Amino acid sequence: MYKIKSWFKSRLIADYAGTMMVVAIFIIIFMAISFTLLSPYIAREQLSSKLDTMSSELVDNYSTNIGEYHELITDVVNNINFDCSKSDRKYIKTKTYNKYYIKNLQDNISLWAIDNNKEQSILSLVWEDTKGKVSIDFEPIISKVTRNKHCDDCILTVVSIPNNNKTLHSQDDDENVLSKQALNIEVFKNSLILKNYVDPQLLSLISMDLKPLLFIIGGLIGLLVFFVINTYTKHQLSLHSLIIKGIWRKEFIPYYQPIINVKNNKMYGCEVLVRWWFNKKELISPDEFIPYAESNGLIIHITDILLEKTLAQLSSLDWNKSSGIISINLVPEQLENKLHMRKAVDLIIKSSISPKLIAFEITERMSFTDLDKAAAVIDYLKAQGINVKLDDAGTGYGSFSYIQHLKLQSLKIDKMFVDTIGTFDHRLSVLDSIIAFGKKSGMEMIAEGVETKEQSEYLLNNGVYLQQGYYFSEPLKFEQFHDYYKQDQVNN
Ligand code: C2E
Ligand code: CA
Ligand code: CA
Questions:
Q1: Domains in the chain, start-ordered, CATH in brackets?
Q2: CA 355 to CA 489: how far, in whole Å?
Q3: What residue ranges line ligand 1, CB within 6 angstroms?
Q4: Which of 401, 429, 465, 481 is most buried by a 10 A CB count?
Q5: What are phi and psi of 149, to 5 degrees?
Q6: Residues 250-303: tens digit of each pLDDT
Q7: Which atom of ligand 1 is nearest to the CA of 273?
Protein backbone atom coordinates (compact mmCIF):
# COMPACT_ATOMS: atom_id res chain seq x y z
CA MET A 1 0.00 0.00 0.00
CA TYR A 2 2.76 2.34 1.01
CA LYS A 3 4.66 1.43 -2.17
CA ILE A 4 1.63 2.22 -4.34
CA LYS A 5 1.21 5.53 -2.56
CA SER A 6 4.79 6.60 -3.04
CA TRP A 7 4.78 5.39 -6.65
CA PHE A 8 1.70 7.51 -7.23
CA LYS A 9 3.30 10.46 -5.51
CA SER A 10 6.45 10.31 -7.59
CA ARG A 11 4.30 10.06 -10.73
CA LEU A 12 2.41 13.14 -9.61
CA ILE A 13 5.59 15.07 -9.04
CA ALA A 14 7.02 13.99 -12.40
CA ASP A 15 3.92 14.70 -14.45
CA TYR A 16 1.22 16.37 -12.42
CA ALA A 17 -1.02 17.53 -15.28
CA GLY A 18 -0.94 14.20 -17.12
CA THR A 19 -1.58 12.09 -14.03
CA MET A 20 -4.37 14.34 -12.80
CA MET A 21 -5.98 14.21 -16.24
CA VAL A 22 -6.18 10.42 -15.98
CA VAL A 23 -7.54 10.73 -12.43
CA ALA A 24 -10.14 13.27 -13.62
CA ILE A 25 -11.33 11.04 -16.47
CA PHE A 26 -11.55 8.07 -14.14
CA ILE A 27 -13.53 9.91 -11.45
CA ILE A 28 -15.92 11.55 -13.93
CA ILE A 29 -16.68 8.30 -15.76
CA PHE A 30 -16.97 6.40 -12.49
CA MET A 31 -19.43 8.90 -11.02
CA ALA A 32 -21.42 9.16 -14.27
CA ILE A 33 -21.81 5.38 -14.49
CA SER A 34 -22.60 5.04 -10.79
CA PHE A 35 -25.35 7.63 -11.06
CA THR A 36 -26.75 5.97 -14.18
CA LEU A 37 -26.93 2.68 -12.31
CA LEU A 38 -29.10 4.38 -9.72
CA SER A 39 -31.80 5.16 -12.27
CA PRO A 40 -34.21 2.30 -11.31
CA TYR A 41 -34.21 3.45 -7.66
CA ILE A 42 -34.59 7.08 -8.60
CA ALA A 43 -37.42 6.27 -11.03
CA ARG A 44 -39.19 4.41 -8.25
CA GLU A 45 -38.65 7.21 -5.75
CA GLN A 46 -39.71 9.84 -8.21
CA LEU A 47 -42.90 8.09 -9.22
CA SER A 48 -43.70 7.11 -5.69
CA SER A 49 -43.41 10.65 -4.36
CA LYS A 50 -45.42 11.96 -7.30
CA LEU A 51 -48.16 9.44 -6.59
CA ASP A 52 -48.02 10.26 -2.89
CA THR A 53 -48.74 13.91 -3.48
CA MET A 54 -51.30 13.25 -6.14
CA SER A 55 -53.11 10.66 -4.07
CA SER A 56 -53.44 12.96 -1.09
CA GLU A 57 -54.57 15.83 -3.28
CA LEU A 58 -57.04 13.56 -4.93
CA VAL A 59 -58.47 12.25 -1.71
CA ASP A 60 -58.68 15.77 -0.27
CA ASN A 61 -60.42 16.93 -3.39
CA TYR A 62 -62.94 14.12 -3.28
CA SER A 63 -63.51 14.53 0.43
CA THR A 64 -64.41 18.16 -0.02
CA ASN A 65 -66.54 17.53 -3.07
CA ILE A 66 -68.25 14.35 -2.08
CA GLY A 67 -67.95 14.24 1.69
CA GLU A 68 -67.60 11.17 3.80
CA TYR A 69 -67.16 7.97 1.85
CA HIS A 70 -69.37 6.02 4.18
CA GLU A 71 -72.19 8.48 3.71
CA LEU A 72 -71.68 8.56 0.02
CA ILE A 73 -71.79 4.84 -0.28
CA THR A 74 -74.78 4.45 2.01
CA ASP A 75 -76.64 7.06 0.09
CA VAL A 76 -75.87 5.42 -3.19
CA VAL A 77 -76.75 1.99 -1.95
CA ASN A 78 -80.11 3.13 -0.73
CA ASN A 79 -81.05 5.05 -3.83
CA ILE A 80 -79.92 3.21 -6.87
CA ASN A 81 -80.69 -0.11 -8.42
CA PHE A 82 -77.20 -1.20 -9.32
CA ASP A 83 -78.01 -1.84 -12.89
CA CYS A 84 -76.21 1.10 -14.37
CA SER A 85 -79.41 2.02 -15.93
CA LYS A 86 -80.28 5.47 -17.08
CA SER A 87 -82.13 6.20 -13.91
CA ASP A 88 -79.20 5.17 -11.75
CA ARG A 89 -76.89 7.34 -13.76
CA LYS A 90 -79.26 10.20 -13.69
CA TYR A 91 -79.67 9.83 -9.98
CA ILE A 92 -76.00 9.98 -9.36
CA LYS A 93 -75.32 12.65 -11.90
CA THR A 94 -78.05 14.96 -10.77
CA LYS A 95 -77.51 14.40 -7.12
CA THR A 96 -74.54 16.42 -6.10
CA TYR A 97 -71.91 15.06 -8.25
CA ASN A 98 -72.60 16.80 -11.47
CA LYS A 99 -68.94 17.22 -12.07
CA TYR A 100 -68.64 13.47 -12.45
CA TYR A 101 -69.79 11.13 -15.07
CA ILE A 102 -70.65 7.57 -14.74
CA LYS A 103 -69.81 4.83 -17.13
CA ASN A 104 -70.95 1.30 -17.29
CA LEU A 105 -68.01 -1.06 -17.19
CA GLN A 106 -69.61 -4.39 -16.67
CA ASP A 107 -72.88 -5.53 -15.31
CA ASN A 108 -73.31 -3.91 -11.95
CA ILE A 109 -69.98 -2.19 -12.12
CA SER A 110 -69.83 1.48 -12.83
CA LEU A 111 -67.07 3.93 -13.25
CA TRP A 112 -67.21 7.53 -12.20
CA ALA A 113 -64.69 9.97 -13.33
CA ILE A 114 -64.08 13.60 -12.98
CA ASP A 115 -63.84 15.32 -16.27
CA ASN A 116 -61.87 18.49 -15.82
CA ASN A 117 -60.69 18.62 -19.42
CA LYS A 118 -57.11 18.34 -18.42
CA GLU A 119 -56.40 15.10 -16.74
CA GLN A 120 -58.43 12.20 -15.75
CA SER A 121 -58.69 11.24 -12.14
CA ILE A 122 -60.46 8.16 -10.94
CA LEU A 123 -60.72 6.36 -7.64
CA SER A 124 -61.91 2.85 -7.43
CA LEU A 125 -64.04 1.63 -4.59
CA VAL A 126 -66.27 -1.40 -4.64
CA TRP A 127 -69.33 -1.82 -2.59
CA GLU A 128 -71.12 -5.07 -2.73
CA ASP A 129 -74.42 -5.55 -1.11
CA THR A 130 -77.32 -7.90 -1.40
CA LYS A 131 -78.74 -5.37 -3.73
CA GLY A 132 -75.77 -5.24 -6.02
CA LYS A 133 -72.34 -3.73 -6.46
CA VAL A 134 -71.02 -0.23 -6.89
CA SER A 135 -67.63 0.64 -8.07
CA ILE A 136 -66.12 4.04 -7.93
CA ASP A 137 -62.75 4.40 -9.55
CA PHE A 138 -60.35 7.17 -8.85
CA GLU A 139 -56.96 7.30 -10.45
CA PRO A 140 -54.17 9.67 -9.53
CA ILE A 141 -53.52 12.34 -11.97
CA ILE A 142 -50.45 11.28 -13.84
CA SER A 143 -48.82 13.92 -15.86
CA LYS A 144 -49.89 13.91 -19.47
CA VAL A 145 -46.33 13.34 -20.54
CA THR A 146 -45.97 10.13 -18.59
CA ARG A 147 -49.36 8.91 -19.62
CA ASN A 148 -49.11 9.64 -23.30
CA LYS A 149 -45.56 8.55 -23.62
CA HIS A 150 -45.86 5.27 -21.88
CA CYS A 151 -49.20 3.77 -21.15
CA ASP A 152 -52.75 4.40 -20.13
CA ASP A 153 -53.36 1.69 -17.62
CA CYS A 154 -50.05 1.28 -15.92
CA ILE A 155 -51.03 2.81 -12.61
CA LEU A 156 -53.86 1.58 -10.52
CA THR A 157 -54.98 3.18 -7.34
CA VAL A 158 -57.09 1.14 -5.01
CA VAL A 159 -58.92 2.25 -1.98
CA SER A 160 -60.27 0.18 0.81
CA ILE A 161 -62.03 0.75 4.08
CA PRO A 162 -60.65 -1.90 6.40
CA ASN A 163 -63.73 -2.03 8.61
CA ASN A 164 -65.90 -3.00 5.73
CA ASN A 165 -63.28 -5.27 4.43
CA LYS A 166 -64.06 -4.14 0.96
CA THR A 167 -61.27 -4.68 -1.45
CA LEU A 168 -60.89 -3.47 -4.75
CA HIS A 169 -61.63 -4.25 -7.82
CA SER A 170 -59.64 -4.23 -10.91
CA GLN A 171 -60.51 -3.93 -14.47
CA ASP A 172 -59.40 -6.91 -16.47
CA ASP A 173 -56.27 -5.34 -17.80
CA ASP A 174 -55.19 -4.25 -14.34
CA GLU A 175 -54.55 -7.71 -13.12
CA ASN A 176 -50.96 -7.70 -14.15
CA VAL A 177 -50.42 -4.46 -12.30
CA LEU A 178 -52.23 -5.61 -9.21
CA SER A 179 -50.20 -8.79 -8.95
CA LYS A 180 -47.16 -6.78 -7.84
CA GLN A 181 -46.59 -5.09 -4.52
CA ALA A 182 -48.06 -1.66 -4.06
CA LEU A 183 -45.56 1.11 -4.82
CA ASN A 184 -46.90 3.22 -2.02
CA ILE A 185 -49.53 2.96 0.61
CA GLU A 186 -51.20 5.81 2.41
CA VAL A 187 -53.64 5.74 5.24
CA PHE A 188 -56.02 8.66 5.31
CA LYS A 189 -58.48 9.83 7.87
CA ASN A 190 -61.66 7.75 7.97
CA SER A 191 -59.24 4.82 7.94
CA LEU A 192 -59.27 4.94 4.21
CA ILE A 193 -56.30 3.08 2.78
CA LEU A 194 -55.00 3.97 -0.59
CA LYS A 195 -52.55 1.84 -2.50
CA ASN A 196 -50.86 2.64 -5.76
CA TYR A 197 -49.88 -0.24 -8.00
CA VAL A 198 -47.54 0.34 -10.86
CA ASP A 199 -46.77 -1.75 -13.86
CA PRO A 200 -43.04 -2.63 -13.61
CA GLN A 201 -42.73 -1.81 -17.26
CA LEU A 202 -43.59 1.79 -16.53
CA LEU A 203 -40.79 1.98 -13.97
CA SER A 204 -38.25 0.64 -16.39
CA LEU A 205 -39.41 3.09 -19.06
CA ILE A 206 -39.10 6.03 -16.67
CA SER A 207 -35.74 4.69 -15.57
CA MET A 208 -34.59 4.64 -19.20
CA ASP A 209 -35.75 8.23 -19.60
CA LEU A 210 -33.72 9.27 -16.54
CA LYS A 211 -30.46 7.69 -17.64
CA PRO A 212 -29.03 10.46 -19.85
CA LEU A 213 -29.79 13.11 -17.23
CA LEU A 214 -28.27 11.02 -14.43
CA PHE A 215 -25.20 10.39 -16.55
CA ILE A 216 -24.70 14.13 -16.91
CA ILE A 217 -25.39 14.86 -13.22
CA GLY A 218 -22.99 12.07 -12.15
CA GLY A 219 -20.34 13.44 -14.49
CA LEU A 220 -20.76 16.96 -13.07
CA ILE A 221 -20.54 15.70 -9.49
CA GLY A 222 -17.47 13.71 -10.53
CA LEU A 223 -15.97 16.92 -11.84
CA LEU A 224 -16.69 18.63 -8.53
CA VAL A 225 -15.14 15.74 -6.58
CA PHE A 226 -12.13 15.98 -8.85
CA PHE A 227 -11.73 19.70 -8.12
CA VAL A 228 -11.79 19.01 -4.38
CA ILE A 229 -9.24 16.18 -4.74
CA ASN A 230 -7.10 18.32 -7.00
CA THR A 231 -7.01 21.21 -4.53
CA TYR A 232 -6.21 18.86 -1.66
CA THR A 233 -3.51 17.03 -3.63
CA LYS A 234 -1.91 20.28 -4.69
CA HIS A 235 -1.75 21.38 -1.06
CA GLN A 236 -0.39 18.05 0.14
CA LEU A 237 1.97 17.77 -2.73
CA SER A 238 3.32 21.20 -2.11
CA LEU A 239 3.89 20.26 1.55
CA HIS A 240 5.49 17.07 0.29
CA SER A 241 7.84 18.81 -2.09
CA LEU A 242 8.60 21.53 0.47
CA ILE A 243 9.61 18.90 3.03
CA ILE A 244 11.76 17.17 0.42
CA LYS A 245 13.40 20.49 -0.34
CA GLY A 246 13.83 21.07 3.41
CA ILE A 247 15.49 17.66 3.78
CA TRP A 248 17.76 18.36 0.87
CA ARG A 249 18.76 21.73 2.34
CA LYS A 250 18.95 20.25 5.85
CA GLU A 251 16.57 22.88 7.22
CA PHE A 252 15.53 20.70 10.17
CA ILE A 253 17.17 21.64 13.43
CA PRO A 254 17.09 20.27 16.97
CA TYR A 255 15.66 22.12 19.95
CA TYR A 256 16.46 20.73 23.36
CA GLN A 257 14.15 20.53 26.32
CA PRO A 258 15.86 19.73 29.62
CA ILE A 259 14.57 16.84 31.72
CA ILE A 260 15.14 17.48 35.42
CA ASN A 261 15.74 15.14 38.30
CA VAL A 262 13.62 16.96 40.86
CA LYS A 263 15.23 15.08 43.74
CA ASN A 264 18.51 16.94 43.27
CA ASN A 265 17.47 19.60 40.74
CA LYS A 266 20.12 18.36 38.35
CA MET A 267 19.54 17.90 34.67
CA TYR A 268 18.90 14.24 33.92
CA GLY A 269 19.09 14.80 30.20
CA CYS A 270 17.11 16.37 27.37
CA GLU A 271 14.55 15.60 24.72
CA VAL A 272 15.43 16.53 21.16
CA LEU A 273 12.47 18.23 19.47
CA VAL A 274 12.59 19.06 15.81
CA ARG A 275 11.94 22.51 14.34
CA TRP A 276 11.86 23.42 10.69
CA TRP A 277 13.97 26.47 9.93
CA PHE A 278 12.00 27.06 6.77
CA ASN A 279 13.92 28.94 4.07
CA LYS A 280 16.22 29.93 6.90
CA LYS A 281 13.63 32.58 7.74
CA GLU A 282 10.69 31.07 9.53
CA LEU A 283 10.54 28.58 12.39
CA ILE A 284 7.86 25.95 11.87
CA SER A 285 6.66 23.80 14.76
CA PRO A 286 6.47 20.01 14.40
CA ASP A 287 2.66 19.91 14.51
CA GLU A 288 2.66 21.52 11.04
CA PHE A 289 4.69 18.86 9.28
CA ILE A 290 5.45 15.89 11.54
CA PRO A 291 2.08 14.12 11.06
CA TYR A 292 2.54 14.34 7.28
CA ALA A 293 6.21 13.35 7.42
CA GLU A 294 5.36 10.42 9.68
CA SER A 295 2.67 9.11 7.37
CA ASN A 296 4.88 9.35 4.30
CA GLY A 297 8.16 7.90 5.43
CA LEU A 298 9.83 11.33 5.11
CA ILE A 299 10.37 11.32 8.88
CA ILE A 300 13.26 8.89 8.38
CA HIS A 301 15.30 11.52 6.58
CA ILE A 302 14.32 14.23 9.05
CA THR A 303 15.50 12.06 11.97
CA ASP A 304 18.80 11.41 10.17
CA ILE A 305 19.44 15.14 9.86
CA LEU A 306 18.33 15.76 13.43
CA LEU A 307 20.54 13.03 14.81
CA GLU A 308 23.54 14.23 12.85
CA LYS A 309 23.09 17.82 14.05
CA THR A 310 22.36 16.80 17.64
CA LEU A 311 25.48 14.65 17.82
CA ALA A 312 27.62 17.44 16.38
CA GLN A 313 26.18 20.16 18.62
CA LEU A 314 26.23 18.18 21.85
CA SER A 315 29.73 16.86 21.11
CA SER A 316 30.86 20.47 21.06
CA LEU A 317 29.58 20.73 24.65
CA ASP A 318 31.70 17.83 25.77
CA TRP A 319 28.50 16.06 26.58
CA ASN A 320 30.24 12.81 27.39
CA LYS A 321 31.48 14.38 30.61
CA SER A 322 27.90 14.61 31.84
CA SER A 323 25.80 11.52 32.20
CA GLY A 324 22.85 13.26 30.52
CA ILE A 325 20.50 11.14 28.46
CA ILE A 326 19.64 12.48 25.00
CA SER A 327 16.17 11.40 24.01
CA ILE A 328 15.22 11.26 20.34
CA ASN A 329 11.69 10.70 19.01
CA LEU A 330 11.03 7.82 16.62
CA VAL A 331 7.87 6.40 15.11
CA PRO A 332 7.23 2.62 15.21
CA GLU A 333 7.83 2.33 11.48
CA GLN A 334 11.39 3.60 11.97
CA LEU A 335 12.07 1.19 14.78
CA GLU A 336 10.89 -1.74 12.69
CA ASN A 337 13.38 -0.81 10.01
CA LYS A 338 16.63 -2.46 11.07
CA LEU A 339 18.65 -1.01 8.20
CA HIS A 340 17.65 2.49 9.18
CA MET A 341 18.44 1.86 12.84
CA ARG A 342 21.84 0.41 11.94
CA LYS A 343 22.59 3.61 10.07
CA ALA A 344 21.59 5.64 13.14
CA VAL A 345 23.75 3.49 15.41
CA ASP A 346 26.72 3.89 13.05
CA LEU A 347 26.32 7.66 13.20
CA ILE A 348 26.23 7.55 17.00
CA ILE A 349 29.27 5.27 17.24
CA LYS A 350 31.22 7.52 14.90
CA SER A 351 30.44 10.55 17.10
CA SER A 352 32.10 11.39 20.37
CA ILE A 353 28.92 10.66 22.29
CA SER A 354 28.56 7.33 24.00
CA PRO A 355 25.57 5.24 22.84
CA LYS A 356 24.77 4.77 26.53
CA LEU A 357 23.72 8.42 26.60
CA ILE A 358 21.25 8.00 23.76
CA ALA A 359 17.64 6.93 24.15
CA PHE A 360 14.84 6.62 21.61
CA GLU A 361 11.26 7.54 22.46
CA ILE A 362 8.65 5.50 20.66
CA THR A 363 5.17 6.93 20.68
CA GLU A 364 2.33 4.54 21.37
CA ARG A 365 -0.05 6.82 19.51
CA MET A 366 0.89 4.92 16.36
CA SER A 367 0.63 1.17 16.08
CA PHE A 368 3.39 -1.27 15.28
CA THR A 369 2.89 -3.49 12.27
CA ASP A 370 5.34 -6.16 13.40
CA LEU A 371 6.05 -6.28 17.12
CA ASP A 372 8.51 -9.19 16.78
CA LYS A 373 10.60 -7.26 14.31
CA ALA A 374 10.53 -4.21 16.61
CA ALA A 375 11.53 -6.38 19.60
CA ALA A 376 14.52 -7.73 17.65
CA VAL A 377 15.64 -4.20 16.75
CA ILE A 378 15.24 -3.08 20.36
CA ASP A 379 17.43 -6.02 21.47
CA TYR A 380 20.01 -4.91 18.93
CA LEU A 381 19.88 -1.31 20.22
CA LYS A 382 20.17 -2.45 23.83
CA ALA A 383 23.20 -4.48 22.91
CA GLN A 384 24.74 -1.21 21.70
CA GLY A 385 23.82 0.45 24.99
CA ILE A 386 20.90 2.46 23.59
CA ASN A 387 17.74 2.57 25.67
CA VAL A 388 14.18 2.73 24.27
CA LYS A 389 11.38 4.51 26.13
CA LEU A 390 7.63 4.33 25.63
CA ASP A 391 6.41 7.85 24.79
CA ASP A 392 2.93 9.23 25.46
CA ALA A 393 2.15 6.20 27.63
CA GLY A 394 -1.57 5.68 28.16
CA THR A 395 -2.72 7.74 25.18
CA GLY A 396 -2.80 5.19 22.42
CA TYR A 397 -2.54 1.64 21.30
CA GLY A 398 -1.22 -0.87 23.75
CA SER A 399 0.97 0.51 26.52
CA PHE A 400 0.97 -2.64 28.55
CA SER A 401 1.31 -5.07 25.70
CA TYR A 402 4.07 -2.97 24.14
CA ILE A 403 5.94 -2.76 27.42
CA GLN A 404 5.72 -6.52 27.84
CA HIS A 405 6.39 -7.50 24.26
CA LEU A 406 9.19 -5.02 23.70
CA LYS A 407 10.63 -5.43 27.22
CA LEU A 408 10.69 -1.66 27.76
CA GLN A 409 11.98 -0.28 31.04
CA SER A 410 11.15 3.42 30.71
CA LEU A 411 7.97 5.29 30.07
CA LYS A 412 7.02 8.88 29.54
CA ILE A 413 3.78 10.03 31.09
CA ASP A 414 1.96 12.30 28.66
CA LYS A 415 1.08 15.92 29.42
CA MET A 416 -2.60 14.94 29.01
CA PHE A 417 -2.42 13.13 32.38
CA VAL A 418 -0.13 15.63 34.09
CA ASP A 419 -2.70 18.33 33.25
CA THR A 420 -5.27 16.55 35.44
CA ILE A 421 -3.31 17.13 38.66
CA GLY A 422 -5.30 19.45 40.94
CA THR A 423 -8.49 18.98 38.89
CA PHE A 424 -11.46 16.65 39.20
CA ASP A 425 -10.78 15.10 35.82
CA HIS A 426 -11.42 11.36 35.92
CA ARG A 427 -8.14 10.87 34.04
CA LEU A 428 -6.35 11.71 37.27
CA SER A 429 -7.06 8.13 38.27
CA VAL A 430 -5.44 6.98 35.01
CA LEU A 431 -2.34 8.97 35.98
CA ASP A 432 -2.31 7.25 39.36
CA SER A 433 -2.72 3.85 37.69
CA ILE A 434 0.14 4.51 35.25
CA ILE A 435 2.37 5.56 38.15
CA ALA A 436 1.35 2.50 40.21
CA PHE A 437 2.02 0.26 37.21
CA GLY A 438 5.40 1.91 36.57
CA LYS A 439 6.45 1.52 40.19
CA LYS A 440 5.33 -2.08 40.40
CA SER A 441 7.20 -2.98 37.23
CA GLY A 442 10.27 -1.12 38.41
CA MET A 443 10.19 1.19 35.40
CA GLU A 444 11.89 4.50 35.02
CA MET A 445 9.21 7.20 34.66
CA ILE A 446 9.45 10.66 33.15
CA ALA A 447 6.53 13.08 33.37
CA GLU A 448 6.24 15.58 30.54
CA GLY A 449 4.36 18.85 30.24
CA VAL A 450 4.90 19.84 33.88
CA GLU A 451 3.83 23.47 34.07
CA THR A 452 3.23 24.19 37.75
CA LYS A 453 4.79 23.69 41.13
CA GLU A 454 1.69 21.81 42.26
CA GLN A 455 2.07 19.29 39.41
CA SER A 456 5.77 18.89 40.08
CA GLU A 457 5.21 18.29 43.79
CA TYR A 458 2.34 15.86 43.24
CA LEU A 459 4.50 13.83 40.87
CA LEU A 460 7.49 13.90 43.22
CA ASN A 461 5.31 12.85 46.17
CA ASN A 462 4.15 9.93 44.05
CA GLY A 463 7.66 8.91 43.18
CA VAL A 464 7.95 10.45 39.70
CA TYR A 465 11.04 12.59 40.08
CA LEU A 466 12.14 12.84 36.45
CA GLN A 467 10.20 15.74 35.02
CA GLN A 468 10.10 17.83 31.88
CA GLY A 469 8.01 20.88 31.12
CA TYR A 470 7.69 24.65 30.91
CA TYR A 471 7.91 24.81 34.71
CA PHE A 472 11.62 24.05 34.28
CA SER A 473 12.29 25.15 30.72
CA GLU A 474 10.76 25.36 27.27
CA PRO A 475 12.53 23.60 24.41
CA LEU A 476 15.65 25.69 23.76
CA LYS A 477 17.62 26.39 20.64
CA PHE A 478 21.20 25.18 20.78
CA GLU A 479 22.74 28.50 21.86
CA GLN A 480 20.32 28.77 24.80
CA PHE A 481 20.66 25.12 25.68
CA HIS A 482 24.43 25.56 25.65
CA ASP A 483 24.10 28.19 28.40
CA TYR A 484 21.57 26.10 30.32
CA TYR A 485 23.88 23.10 30.23
CA LYS A 486 26.93 25.06 31.35
CA GLN A 487 24.94 26.61 34.21
CA ASP A 488 23.72 23.19 35.25
CA GLN A 489 27.29 21.90 35.27
CA VAL A 490 28.37 24.84 37.46
CA ASN A 491 25.49 24.38 39.90
CA ASN A 492 26.07 20.70 40.41
P1 C2E B 1 6.09 14.89 22.34
O2 C2E B 1 7.06 13.84 21.96
O3 C2E B 1 5.02 14.53 23.28
O4 C2E B 1 6.92 16.10 22.85
C5 C2E B 1 6.52 16.92 23.88
C6 C2E B 1 5.85 18.13 23.36
O7 C2E B 1 5.30 18.85 24.44
C8 C2E B 1 6.83 19.10 22.67
O9 C2E B 1 6.09 19.80 21.67
C10 C2E B 1 7.14 20.07 23.79
O11 C2E B 1 7.55 21.31 23.31
C12 C2E B 1 5.82 20.14 24.46
N13 C2E B 1 5.93 20.51 25.85
C14 C2E B 1 6.88 20.15 26.72
N15 C2E B 1 6.63 20.67 27.94
C16 C2E B 1 5.48 21.36 27.84
C17 C2E B 1 4.71 22.13 28.76
O18 C2E B 1 5.02 22.27 29.93
N19 C2E B 1 3.55 22.70 28.29
C20 C2E B 1 3.18 22.54 27.00
N21 C2E B 1 2.05 23.12 26.60
N22 C2E B 1 3.89 21.84 26.11
C23 C2E B 1 5.04 21.26 26.51
P24 C2E B 1 6.68 20.03 20.26
O25 C2E B 1 8.13 20.32 20.32
O26 C2E B 1 5.78 21.01 19.57
O27 C2E B 1 6.51 18.61 19.59
C28 C2E B 1 5.25 18.09 19.36
C29 C2E B 1 5.32 16.67 18.97
O30 C2E B 1 5.94 16.51 17.71
C31 C2E B 1 6.14 15.81 19.93
O32 C2E B 1 5.37 15.47 21.03
C33 C2E B 1 6.45 14.64 19.06
O34 C2E B 1 5.36 13.75 19.02
C35 C2E B 1 6.59 15.27 17.70
N36 C2E B 1 8.03 15.45 17.41
C37 C2E B 1 8.86 16.45 17.73
N38 C2E B 1 10.09 16.20 17.27
C39 C2E B 1 10.03 15.01 16.63
C40 C2E B 1 10.97 14.19 15.93
O41 C2E B 1 12.16 14.50 15.81
N42 C2E B 1 10.53 13.02 15.41
C43 C2E B 1 9.24 12.62 15.54
N44 C2E B 1 8.86 11.46 15.00
N45 C2E B 1 8.32 13.35 16.18
C46 C2E B 1 8.72 14.54 16.74
CA1 CA C 1 8.58 12.59 22.93
CA1 CA D 1 3.56 13.63 24.65
A1: 2-37+203-237 (no CATH), 39-198 (no CATH), 239-491 (3.20.20.450)
A2: 21
A3: 257, 273-274, 285-287, 290, 294, 299, 303, 306, 329, 331, 363, 391-392, 415, 448-451, 468-470, 475
A4: 481
A5: -70, -40
A6: 999 999 999 999 999 999 999 999 999 998 888 999 999 999 999 888 999 999
A7: 38
